[in-house]
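INFO batch 0412 | record 1 of 1 | parsing
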Amino acid sequence: MADAEAAPSSAVARTLNRIVVGISGASGAIYGVRLLQALHGQPGIEAHAVVSDAGWRTLQHECGVDGPAALQALALEAPELTIDLPAAVYRDLVAYAEAIGRQSGQAAPDPAKLIAPMIQRFMATDRAFAKVRRSPNQPKPESAARSG
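INFO prediction complete | emitting C-alpha cells
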C-alpha cells in the first residue's frame, strides 16, 4: 500500500518544471519580474529568481525593489481586473478557445485565461506603444511608486 501511495508524488515530481529567472545588472530587470509574475500559479511550474548584486541595484532603480521580500511581493502581485465585453466579442473569444482546444486535441481553455496573453501580445507588437515605453520621460511603474 505504501508503494501505491508513493507513486502519485513521484509522478508529480516528474512533471514539475523548475525555472530559474536570472536578473543581472543590465537594464530591463522588470522583464524578469514580469516573467516571475507570469509563471506564478502556473500548474507544474516552480519559479526561482537569482539576482546579482548589480541586479539588486537595477531592481531598486527601475522597479523600487529593495530586497528579496519586495521582489517576492512584486512577483506574486497579480491585480484583478473586471472588464465588460460586447456579446459578439465574447462569442468570438469562446469560439477562439474552442478552436484552440480542437487544434491541440485537448479541452478548450477557459476563455478568460486567453485575454491576458492576447493583450500582452498586442502591446508587444504595437510600435507606437513601444516608442512611448522607450521615451526618457516614461514614468516609473506604479509598483515602484508604492514601494518607494
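INFO post-check: The chain has a mean pLDDT of 78.
INFO record closed
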